[in-house]
User: What shape does this take?
Amino acid sequence: MDTRTLGELLDTLGEPALRLLTAPSGLTTPVTEVVLYDAHAPFPDRAPGALLLAVGVRADAAGALVDEAAAARMAGLVIRGEDGPASGQGPSSGQGPSSGQGLASGHGQGLADAVARARERGLALLTVDEDAAWHHVHLLLAGAVGARPSPAGGAALGDLFSLAGAVATAVGGATVIEDPRQRILAHSTIPGQPVDEPRRQGILGRQVPGSPANTEQYRVLFASQGPVRLPALSAEELPRLAVAVRAGGETLGSLWVVDDGTLAPDAEEALAQGASTAALLLLRARAAQELSRHMTGDLLRRLLDGTAEPATAAERLGLAPGTPVRVAAFALEGAAGAPDGEQAALRLLDLVRLQCEARYGRHACVLVDGVVYALLPGTYGRAGERQRRLAEDIVRRAGQALRVPVRAGLGDVVPEVAEVRGSREDADLVLRVLGPDETVAAMAEVRARAVLLRLTELLGERRELAAGAWRDIVAYDAGHGTDYARTLVCWLDAGCDMARAARLLAVHPNTCRYRLRQARTQLGIDLDDPDERLVLWLQLRTLAGLRGTSA
Assistant: This one.
């Protein structure tokens, strides 16, 4: 496996998860492992490439640890801190602040001294949030260094199956490991251990069948601090021995054992030990999943802005060459600038990701400037309607959960990942032209509006394109109370048919004819030249915002 560099680690995790204070040896420094500092254990003499987490060491007292880490040829030291460099030089500079003085006010002189000492000793110094749990930081960094961001924590879930087998052997009964939503993550396959019908159905469906009695058993289980014995819920079911899996007060899942009356005498103790191991594995699976989501989200962000290499991006996203894709954009209506707008946008990201992963498995979603973007497998023709229905479902669910209207725009399907940026521009444009009563649309449904909006922007940006008789017409109407501009638009919309134009204006054809004659005479408009008519119509429709109606 290729060794990860400090720069790659920062690109993978980045702010706010990880901030760089200084990297005197540069961002190409290799990072081989992540280790936890233990004040009660001997400090290693040599640990080249290691990233040391300063557990139990205050940031303003990290100077001595900097010396020890540098002497052991470690790659860097990670401490807890409030913010990144005060001087404004961040990870992109590779060097951090030019002096410790910029940090003194925000972090104390001790931290400024640690930064200066790290620079002198050639050791990278990084920081994580003050409230970050060290075990979570370790799992996240170790996963990034290992460069094995399994889409769903695959390696860890494989370990869960091994654990289920080990617990079943120790306890003496068929075992399953579940997440908090009663989804079965792993199960044992020890020959000779009885499995009743409800357990069999749960394993086949990967979900525990729901019932009021079942819900009550989960309530009892999660209220208990240790293993609990639960009675059978029906004649075809055996009793259960179960325990909740927790870490730091958070419930991560549960272990369930079928109790046919032959469990081992120390079954409860063995199950409790299994729950402790399961907590570590579930945390690792979560960290792997978070890392995978972060990496695919960052990759999608770079695809959307055109800075990612398409072939590499397609491979990392699991897309075969030439796979058509499209971008869906989701936005909260009226949330921009709201006090809780950012939090609501993050919740929208979670909702979109959950729904997309439920349908497509591993999926790339990212939040950019308040808009959630999802990369969907592209399908042409009527098959593409499935994605529209998905967008409608997400909008409905998100609106109910967030209690804020949500809108969605679907960009055009593009033939390969290299053209994702164009589909993203389409999706953004759809969001801009959605009507007040519309919540979801694809570019094909609103293309006329989108084209007119683009033309309006283009015409308004160029003086020579915005000049013309239309300005004189609009100004004359404003000064004289006439309605020549709207009459002209209706007449041109009607294909120069006087009767149809009169119906659009809700006036007599003679009135329409009189207005056109007066516009020619008083404003000198040439309505005989088809090119002149086309330009006049376009400018009145876009720049003046008029439409062929009397309203």
